[in-house]
Amino acid sequence: MSVIQKIRDKYAVVIIVLICLAIVSFLLQDVFFGSNSMFRQSTTVGKVNGEELDYRDYMQRIENSQNRMRQQMQGASLDEETQQYIREEAWDQFLREHIMKAQYEELGIEVTQLEVADHINGKNPHPLVLQNFTNPETGQFDRAIFDRVRENARQDQTGEVSAQLLAFDNAIAEYQKNLKYITLVHQGINYPKWLAAQQAADNAQNANISYVQVPYATIADSTIKVTDAELNKYIQDNKARFEVPETRKVEYVSFDVVPTAADTAAAMTELLKLKAEMDTTPDIAGFIKLNSELAFYDGYASRSAIQVPAKDSIIDLPVGATYGPYRDNNVLVFAKMLDRKTMPDTVKFRQIVLIAQPGLDSAVKKRADSLAAAISGGADIAALATQFSDDPSSKQTGGEYTLTPNGYFANELKEVKDFAFTGTNGQLKVIKLAVGGYAIVKITEQKNFGPAVKIAYLAKPVDASNTTSSDALGQANDFASKNSDQKSFEKNVQQKGLNKRIADNIQPMDFVLPGLGASREIVNWAYKADKGDVSPVFTLEDKFVVAVLSGVRNKGLAPLEEVRPQVEAEVKKVKKAEQIMAKLKSPASIEAAASATNQPVLTADALNFSTPFVPSMGFEPRVVGAAFNKAWGTAKVSEAIQGNGGVFVVKVNSYVPAPAPGTDYNQQRQAYEQNLKQVADQQLFQVLKKKSDVKDNRAEFFTSN
């Protein structure tokens, strides 16, 4: 026991220290590496009223929108402008969901599972249900299709179908929540009888007036002195007019990478090698798709539709012959004649498109054959298309299309277009579609038959070589190394005779700058640099750029130097008005006002309280209001009135009854309330968004295009 006691006495302090270190280590581990650690990269892309918005959720929304857009554009690539639109649309929807969620919770708005089920299984299915589960044979909602999808969800081991149905249920719930919210807002809109009576009384008479106008232009701007203090006070007194977003301004010099004669020769050598392969390949379409800068068009074009250099020489080629090389902008091209035939340059046809859901192909084919038989028997294809077609683009026009050989038509309906040009006028055919389903097509007109050709274009771009690019980069680096601030930047631009350009009003989430294209790195730099800083060399697609940050504007009120001309004009107008009004004082008559200012007495008739615009004056609501001031009436002349175009003195000559509107109170109420409901529908969310505390941190997550 004594030995154990000695060990305890000797190592007690050490053991206590080790225990303390273990506890501290555990706590620090959470601080440094836990879910709330100081070194964990934040995924908060923004906040709405303190609620965090997650970056991953935002990016998923962008990806979903991109996929939908690509489907609409038949897989075409999305340019930067489209990408920017998608990012902003996804962000706005993200904000909308969180802002409206708070509104629903505050008002106690809910949509229960029973409500959702009733909108799906009840007697009156929800519009989303009707839209998504329509029988292609009848064009009507078919509950059996929905039941079949629900059964597939039970058997789907991946869970994807169940997830889609859950998203569908959530969409119905959100739709109904918003409907309840909007209904509450609409119910709060009212046009009371007292207001109708007051407006009727206000507008019951017109005023005929005499007036004197002293235009502000009668006083020279040079005689009015203003101070910065006065200008800044005007900005403070009119904050709503001068609120601005956060922006940056950069001035830049671009060193463009322009292909040289040597680069053109290199492209020509490569093109000639490809041309030799083209001459022997049995698959010209596949070869062009793999090797040409210009896409292969698997169709025929009329002479008038072909717009290329050396057009006549190319069109007159015999089948199998090649023309070129020739230059078309920045590409070198060989054109090979593949085929020629006689075709109409315009066709008209009507179609009924029946889309087949999985497992329903035979039923849809039977329906298509039935419709074709009816049309052959004399039924109106236009009426049938309006009733049965699944093609929304032509449903309202009886399925009618007018096409030219190279005109756009949905790729999913390529079989229809081919038949329209190769069939005969009046011919009717049921065509199986590659996307699933059938089209009943009747050619109604073919005109202007003439030669049409199919041409393959083998094109090679003339790109700048590494040497050319290195030369431009060397010039950019040399320029950048000689600039340390905006003053030296300006000096070197002038000495070297360079073309300086400006990109203004750059916002944090801009990805494209005018004249530069995709320039996200420059935007990021502009928001991290200080005013007057000169950038490193930025490498863009076909140029190198050196920029200087010449302007920084924070969110809030615009600084005086940016709005000085506008504010000076307004403040001078106020000072001019004060001078004119001091000169007029309180005129005893309209003639006295004219005499004091050396201005003529003018007249204006039929002024109405509801219309602030007067043809002889312009927009002058204060003058119109003065004409109906009971304190003056027809007996007295008005005081001097500070208007938009000058200072006015008004004398009412007479009041005459105004034509009474031919509507009763109920009609007025309906029109008034309907107008306000439309305004509410259009502007309500923007008002809620403005009232919300929104923090946008997206720029921190996007460092490049």
Automatic annotation (TrEMBL):
Cross-referenced SUPFAM superfamilies: FKBP-like, Triger factor/SurA peptide-binding domain-like
Membrane topology classification: Single-pass type II membrane protein
Residues annotated as transmembrane: 12-33
Key words of the record: Cell inner membrane, Cell membrane, Chaperone, Isomerase, Membrane, Rotamase, Transmembrane, Transmembrane helix
GO cellular component, one term: plasma membrane
Major localization class: membrane
A GO MF label: peptidyl-prolyl cis-trans isomerase activity
Domain PpiC residue range list: 344-445
Keyword Transit peptide on entry: no
Chaperone found in the keyword field: yes
Cellular localization per UniProt: Cell inner membrane
The name this protein goes by in its record: Periplasmic chaperone PpiD
Lineage: Bacteria, Pseudomonadati, Bacteroidota, Chitinophagia, Chitinophagales
